[in-house]
Amino acid sequence: MKPNIELRQLRYFVVVAEELNFTRAAQRLQIAQPPISRQIQALEKALKIVLFNRTNRRVTLTPAGQVFLAECRQILQQLEQGVRIAQRAALGETGQLVIGFEGAFHNEAILRIVQVFRRQFSDVELIFQEMSSGKQMDALQMQHIDIGFVDPIISRENISFMQLLSEPMVVVLPESHPLAVQETIALLQLENAPWITGRRDEGCGLLLRFLEICRQAGFVPNIQQETNDIQMRLGFVASGLGITLLPLSALASGYEGVVHREIVREAVKEIDDPTDQVKLAIAWQSDRMSPVLNAFLEVVRSMS
Asked: Crossing angle for the helix pair 291-303 and 107-120, nearest 10 degrees?
């Protein structure tokens, strides 16, 4: 039968063992001496061993008491550590967060958020997985990721969004393209052009916006090449294989052999949520919150 031992008995024992005086131990614990004596006696009875040699002049540890003291200190230290870890976990200061993101878009904005979060929550493990917005939506519902950086044009049941930014899409053409001399381009001028887009089978948010803006402009695009790799897409354009539509930020570092032009706004049907604006939002499963996720969202809100 296992001994019935209370945690306070271990604490009392350690203090008495360190003071080797019940009166000083009572003062240190800020309680009366008789309860300490009773709890030590109850502990010895439960263990069926003598922990202290007691005389009128002094109190000393028995050999068994010395061994038990070392074990009790370790137990109490582990308990305190466990409490600290649990408290930090409850505050979102420890744990793991699996984050989805789509390609090369808005990397600077995402990295700023990650850097601020890492400074405040350095013990949280962040795991990044690159996938399209559509696949992120599926991964959120299947609980494969905790949070996603997505284009909110794609939605799912029980998925919440917090929009972070919006930026225009621009037409990217080879330098030698006849329309490259124009400052702005209407999409209808590109009705018969060969287009290079993201893969249609992967739920690319940018592709969905492109298809919708073409629909609003009144034509179905002639898609000739598909790749989710932005550098490859720009290379295709530079090689004369077609043209593409990209967020302005995707061209921040420049690419030799291509130019970009603004889309004429009048060529797009006026709606409350224009699709010629690429959006970045954080998505999460609204019925699956955690302290770490809450902490991440609070960091994002503080940066808004």
From this structure: 120
